[in-house]
Design goal:
Layout lengths: L7 E4 L5 H12 L3 E6 L2 H9 L3 E4 L5 H11 L6 E4 L16 H21 L1 H5 L5 E5 L12 H21 L5 E6 L18 H13 L4 E3 L3 H10 L1 H8 L3
Parallel strand pairs: 1-2, 1-4, 2-3, 4-5, 5-6, 6-7
Length: 241
């Protein structure tokens, strides 16, 4: 198990939900955690708990620039791309604003790719460096309720698989974490079994310590097994929801 004590961690979307639990659990294991978030109020809470905070909205390039400027040339051990959003995109409900589509793609796909690329040298200067890309079980096969969200997460999953092989040469490990539906503000009002943010974060932390390449979490473990046997069956099941 990798010792997290003293690890320099940059965690996006760390002021609520899964990210907030990740920040707290990593800190409890001795890591030095900097968190990003869009809400100054929520970041103030994290600052009060002893976290370094960076205000950044990843739905546009300004958020990425803010993080890069704040981090500078400092070495980095672990980059966790956790920030994301789920904008409505349902043809049955009418047209979706172009801005909503663009912002969702930038937040869920473009921003993590750029952060990993621009912080490559910082990571190479770190100790046993790692990138953690948080995707979703819906990256394996989509549901019919959120094709935009599913598409962005599937894109990040595909990118992660390819980038992982390239990064081996520079000694940077890449872990993809695939959570199920988690009880957070993003899923409020949605029916179904929801994993707690605390339990989901614990599973991600364990995967980091084990330096795994892929971490299906909760019900995603079953989905992953079904998909490995019959992608068509997994797709049929998920498209019902």
């Amino acid at each position: 198990m990798m010792d997290l004590s003293g690890k320099r961690v940059l965690l996006t979307g760390g002021s609520d939900g899964i990210g907030q639990e990740l920040a707290r659990q990593l800190k409890s294991k001795g890591a030095e955690v900097a968190v990003t978030g869009r809400s100054a109020k929520k970041l103030a809470v994290m600052a009060g708990e002893g976290f370094r905070t960076i205000e950044a909205d990843f739905s546009h390039s300004g958020g990425v620039a803010a993080v890069l400027d704040a981090w500078g040339d400092a070495p980095l051990d672990i980059l966790i791309n956790n920030a994301g959003m789920g904008r409505d995109h349902d043809f049955r409900k009418g047209a979706t604003a172009t801005s909503d589509i663009e912002e969702n793609i930038y937040a869920n796909l473009t921003s993590p790719i750029i952060l990993g690329a621009r912080l490559h040298d910082n990571l190479k200067a770190g100790h046993a460096p790692m990138i953690v890309n948080v995707t979703s079980g819906l990256a394996i096969t989509p549901s019919n309720t959120g094709p935009l969200y599913c598409g962005t997460k599937a894109g990040l999953r595909s990118y992660s698989i390819g980038a992982r092989e390239q990064l081996r040469a520079s000694g940077i490990h890449l872990l993809e974490a695939l959570p199920p539906m988690v009880d957070t503000q993003m899923t409020a009002g949605r029916d179904g079994n929801k994993m707690s943010a605390e339990d989901c974060a614990a599973a991600i932390v364990e995967a980091i310590q084990q330096r795994r390449e892929e971490a299906p979490i909760g019900q995603v473990k079953l989905l992953r097994r079904i998909h490995s046997i019959s992608p068509a069956l997994a797709r049929k099941i998920l498209l019902r929801f």
